[in-house]
Each structure stands twice: as structure tokens, then as C-alpha cells.
Write a structure and sequence with these properties.
The complex is a heterodimer of chains A (383) and B (96). By secondary structure, chain A is of the alpha+beta class. Chain A folds into 5 domains: 76 residues, 2-Layer Sandwich (Alpha-Beta Plaits); 72 residues, Ubiquitin-like (UB roll) (Roll); 54 residues, no CATH class; 64 residues, no CATH class; 67 residues, no CATH class. In chain A, 25% of the residues lie in helices and 46% in strands. The longest helix of chain A is centred in the C-terminal third of the chain and has 19 residues. Chain B has a domain of 66 residues: Immunoglobulin-like, CATH 2.60.40.2000. Classes of the chains: A alpha+beta (383), B mainly beta (96). The interface between A and B is medium-sized, with 20 and 17 residues.
């Protein structure tokens, strides 16, 4: 494939006259004629389009009739377009705009992170002011790196680089740091009245034994320990004292209540941001305070080509207060759940030995009371 | 027994002279024909005399070269240089 065929070339026929002499003369003048094939009364050949113009006078001189059979090459494909200056100006303007916008973020490469990490990193970058369409400065990149490191301690190392419209984010997830003992010395006391079932001592001096009744605030494990000669040494108190404890909880659940319910109507609007400017499209003038607002951040793209414009799609789901009614059984189940949550908060990991409950219904409100006997660790830091 | 011709003695001066010797005059302007497979290249010809289907006649200055074949195509034609492509059946030289 020669360059003439790519840019502009013609295939023509030459008939009549002194064809051989014309060919000889054309070769002497440096005209590049190729692929010459004989045909009745002449020949057909190919030449660059610019040489064809010089061949025409020779053909007239040797009384040869030339006729272009086929034009090929990029020039003939673009010729109609090249005459339209508007298209040319548009292409030039497009190139100029692309060149001017290369300082903006066209794409963000978060491929080194997992899906969840990428979403959280994008949120941290957005909070730091970096999103598609942002004009990047060195200060912004530094801020973005610090924002990633401060993003809930998820990343232990972060690097944000920007080159020709592409923002590359690399980060290493932080490893779990073991808890460091505060080395504070304090005794352990009982946080509720009960009967000690077992004492699993790790450190310190136990002041109770299994089977002993304890009261709330009583010191269970002390920090001092006496040596044989009577010298006291102080150590950290650590133990699990399992005790049988009576626990009581209560909850009030109304059978009729009011809550915000979705109406099924929603309004969406968009905010386009690029190079520090933003444009809101379709934003409603008033918005109910009860509405549930959700935002989605995407990037504007045309036919799959991402543009340096960030799009924030906000959807407000309308809600209105409506009365709801629940059955007594459901209210009791909810009350039981609340009490169990309360118990789990008071005594984490407690084992329920017995559970007694009673409820009364007064003026549309269920009053629930629960009494439980549990086996739980009752140690807590003494005040 | 015929007398053996004496070979000229090789001297340093003669060796250097031979090393830098120029080719004979008109070496590069002589007609040269190369053929390789179905391609033939003719250099330093004078005029294309005749070109028909299956025959091409070229004036070499001191004679004529006639190439007979099938599907003969002039792949490239430049001043004094002709590249032919096709099936060559016969090449014929005639001297003036």
C-alpha cells in the first residue's frame, strides 16, 4: 500500500494516439505511473492525483484520450467536507476545548480498590472537593490524600496522582491495631445484687467466693495482694464473676401511632458541576421538610464518552404523617424485643435462666413488664 | 609447450591503486535486466516502443528487447527504469 493510494490517487484509462510515447514522456518527466495494464487501443494505469493533472497536457500532445475510472484515497473522501469551513472550525474548536480542559478531572481510576472501598474513597474525595470536572491543583491533591487517610481510618496509605485528565487513586487498607492496655489499676465491683455462681480470676485478689451473696457496689476483686511477709503489691484486677441476678425491665408501646409514610410521589433534579461552576436543572422551588432525600453521584457521558462534568441526582420522596394501628400481640412482641435489647445493653452476654412477663392495656397503650433471672458477669470498674 | 604469460608483480603501489580503482566507464548506464519469478526489471532502456496484451517491446539503444508473455503489467515506469509483472514466456533480443 503506497501513500498515493492512501491520500489521493486515480485509476484512469488512456485510449488512442501514441500511448507508448506518452508513457515514455511521462516517465522522463518523473510522473509516477503504476499498475499499467494493456487494454484494447491503449492501457489503464494508476497515478497520484497530482500527477494526473500533469499527465493531461501530455495526453493532448500525443492525442491520447484520458478518462478517470476511479478515485481513491482519503482526500476524495474528505473533499466535500474540507470545503465546509464550519466543520473545520468546529473540529479545531473541539480540539482547542479538549486541550483547555485537560486540567479538569475527566476520569477517576479507583480500580485498585474493592467496590466498597472505591465508593467510600470517592465520597471522601468529594468531601475534599475532588470529583469529575474539578480543576486540579497540587493543594487539592494533598488535601485529597489527607481526606483518604482521615476517612474513618480505613486506609493506612493513600496516593492521588493526576495526569492529563486522569485521576489515579491508590490506597492500602489499614490493618487492625490491637488494643493497648491503659495500665490503669482499679478494683472491680459488682454492678448488681446477686448470688455469685463462679469466680474466674485472671489477676488481682478475689474478695468473694462462689455461693456468696453480693450487693451492688461491693468490691469483688481487689488490686492489692499481700506477700508472705505482709508486703502489699498492687496489680491490675481482672476476673469474670458470674452471678445469678434478678433483672426487671419495662416498655410502653402505643397501639395507635403516627409515622411518616411514603406517598409514592417523588421529584428528581440534577446539578451539573464543572470547573468550579454548577448548574441546577429542574430543581423545585419548595421542598417539604418531611421529604426523604437521597443523592446519587454520577458523571455526565455522551455516547459512552465520559465528560468532565459531575452530575448529582437528587431525589426527594414525599412523605406524610399517617396514623398506623398495630395489634396487641404485635405490640407485646415489640415490647419484649425492647426489653431484651435493654437486658443485652445492661448485661452483655447474659444467659436467661427464667423469664416472666406481664402486660396491661390502658388508654390504647400497652404497659409491659418483664422480670428475668439471669446468669451474667457482674464485674465493673469500681467508682 | 606454450609460454606461460607472466603475471604482473604485486607491489604496494599497485595494490593501493587497485583498491581505489573506479569501475569501467559507462558501467552504470549500461542496460541491465533482472528477473525474479514473475517480475522483471529493465534499467537504462531508451524508449518504450510497443505495449500490447502479451507483448512489450523496449528500445535498448543498441538493439530491441521483446518480452512475450501473459497478463503482462507494467508495475512501475520511471525514467530509464521499467518494472514488469506477469508470466514471461519468451525474451528476445535483436541488435541493430
Amino acid at each position: 500500500m503506497n501513500s498515493d493510494r492512501i491520500w489521493a490517487g486515480v485509476r484512469f484509462t488512456a485510449v488512442g494516439g501514441r500511448c507508448e510515447a506518452m508513457l515514455q514522456r511521462a516517465a522522463e518527466q518523473g510522473l509516477r505511473i503504476r499498475a499499467i495494464r494493456p487494454k484494447a487501443g491503449g492501457f489503464s494505469a494508476e497515478c497520484p492525483a497530482r500527477h494526473y493533472l500533469r499527465l493531461a497536457p501530455l495526453a493532448r500532445h500525443y492525442r491520447v484520450r484520458l478518462q478517470v475510472q476511479r478515485r481513491h484515497g482519503l482526500y476524495f473522501g474528505l473533499r466535500a467536507t474540507l470545503r465546509r469551513t464550519g466543520l473545520l472550525a468546529g473540529a479545531l474548536a473541539f480540539g482547542l476545548v479538549i486541550w483547555l480542559l485537560q486540567g479538569l478531572v475527566w476520569s477517576m481510576d479507583l480500580s485498585g480498590l474493592s467496590v466498597g472501598q472505591a465508593a467510600r474513597a470517592a465520597r471522601a474525595l468529594r468531601a475534599a472537593g475532588i470529583q469529575p470536572g474539578t480543576r486540579v491543583t497540587q493543594q487539592l491533591l494533598t488535601d485529597a490524600e489527607y481526606a483518604l487517610l482521615d476517612a474513618g481510618g480505613e486506609f493506612s496509605w493513600a496516593s492521588v496522582n493526576f495526569e492529563r485528565g486522569r485521576l489515579t487513586v491508590e490506597a492500602a487498607p489499614a490493618k487492625a491495631v490491637p488494643d493497648i492496655d491503659s495500665s490503669e489499676i482499679y478494683p472491680l465491683a459488682a454492678k448488681a445484687d446477686g448470688l455469685a455462681l463462679s469466680v474466674q480470676l485472671e489477676d488481682g485478689t478475689p474478695l468473694i467466693t462462689a455461693g456468696q451473696q453480693v450487693t451492688k457496689g461491693q468490691i469483688l476483686i481487689d488490686t492489692s495482694r499481700a506477700a508472705r511477709d505482709g508486703t502489699l503489691s498492687y496489680r491490675r484486677a481482672s476476673a469474670v464473676v458470674l452471678a445469678q441476678v434478678s433483672w426487671q425491665g419495662r416498655a410502653e408501646i402505643p397501639l395507635v401511632f403516627e409515622a411518616l409514610a411514603l406517598t409514592g410521589r417523588h421529584t428528581s433534579w440534577y446539578e451539573l458541576s464543572a470547573a468550579g461552576y454548577s448548574l441546577a436543572v429542574g430543581r423545585p422551588e419548595t421542598l417539604s421538610t418531611d421529604a426523604l432525600v437521597r443523592q446519587r453521584h454520577t458523571q455526565l457521558s455522551v455516547l459512552g464518552l465520559p465528560l468532565p462534568v459531575a452530575v448529582t441526582e437528587t431525589t426527594a420522596f414525599e412523605r406524610e404523617p399517617l396514623p398506623f394501628e398495630r395489634s396487641e400481640e404485635l405490640a407485646r412482641a415489640l415490647a419484649r424485643l425492647q426489653c431484651e435489647k435493654q437486658l443485652a445493653a445492661d448485661f452483655p452476654g447474659a444467659q436467661i435462666l427464667t423469664w416472666q412477663e406481664s402486660s396491661t392495656l390502658e388508654a390504647g397503650v400497652l404497659f409491659y413488664q418483664a422480670g428475668a433471672t439471669i446468669a451474667a458477669d457482674i464485674c465493673q470498674r469500681a467508682e | 609447450m606454450p609460454k606461460r604469460s607472466k603475471r604482473p608483480r604485486s607491489t604496494p603501489r599497485r595494490s593501493i591503486k587497485e583498491l581505489f580503482a573506479q569501475p569501467p566507464a559507462q558501467l552504470y548506464s549500461r542496460t541491465t535486466i533482472y528477473q525474479c519469478g514473475n517480475e522483471m526489471e529493465i534499467e537504462n532502456f531508451k524508449t518504450l516502443l510497443d505495449y500490447e496484451d502479451g507483448l512489450i517491446r523496449v528500445d535498448l539503444g543498441h538493439g530491441t528487447l521483446t518480452v512475450t508473455g501473459a497478463r503482462l503489467e507494467i508495475a512501475a515506469l520511471e525514467k530509464g527504469r521499467l518494472r514488469l509483472r506477469g508470466i514471461f514466456i519468451k525474451t528476445e533480443f535483436s541488435y541493430d
